């Protein structure tokens, strides 16, 4: 052991514990679509393609999953990106007079 070892202070007899790094990875958020009885299926497919970059086939699959199960995940993003997508999708739906609801939850 060296003369100055902060973890084992020979003069006081104290043993110090090194501080653990407190950095945590930032959380990710799932962006979620909710089913409703009024929004046309084609409009939901368009949303999934335009705002979430899905090819037509995948967008159709996710739309049908939401239609049958009530909710579905559009993608997983950082908090800022998820919040922006939720805002843009809800604004776009309202602008087209559809009640489609988009929301987010921590992944
Ligand atoms: N249930 C709608 C219909 O029958 C279609 C739909 C799918 C609506 C997904 C919303 O998130 C949704 N026209």
UniProtKB/TrEMBL annotation:
Pfam families: ClpS (PF02617)
InterPro entries the UniProt entry points to: ClpS, ClpS_core, Ribosomal_bL12_C/ClpS-like
GO biological process: protein catabolic process; proteolysis
Every Adaptor protein ClpS core domain range: 24-103
Family matches, as NCBIfam families: PRK00033.1-5 (NF000672)
Subunit structure, interactors included: Binds to the N-terminal domain of the chaperone ClpA.
UniProt record similarity statement: Belongs to the ClpS family.
Primary role: Involved in the modulation of the specificity of the ClpAP-mediated ATP-dependent protein degradation.
Protein name: ATP-dependent Clp protease adapter protein ClpS
Organism, as annotated: Methylomicrobium album BG8
């Amino acid at each position: 052991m060296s003369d100055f070892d902060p973890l084992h202070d020979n003069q006081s007899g104290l043993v110090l514990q090194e501080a653990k790094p407190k950095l945590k990875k930032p959380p990710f958020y799932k962006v979620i679509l909710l089913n409703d009885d009024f929004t046309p299926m084609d409009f939901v497919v368009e949303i999934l393609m335009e705002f979430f970059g899905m090819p037509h086939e995948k967008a159709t699959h996710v739309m049908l999953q939401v239609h049958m199960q009530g909710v579905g995940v559009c993608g997983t993003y950082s908090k800022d990106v998820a919040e922006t997508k939720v805002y843009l999708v809800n604004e776009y739906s309202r602008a087209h007079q559809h009640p489609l609801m988009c929301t987010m939850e921590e992944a």
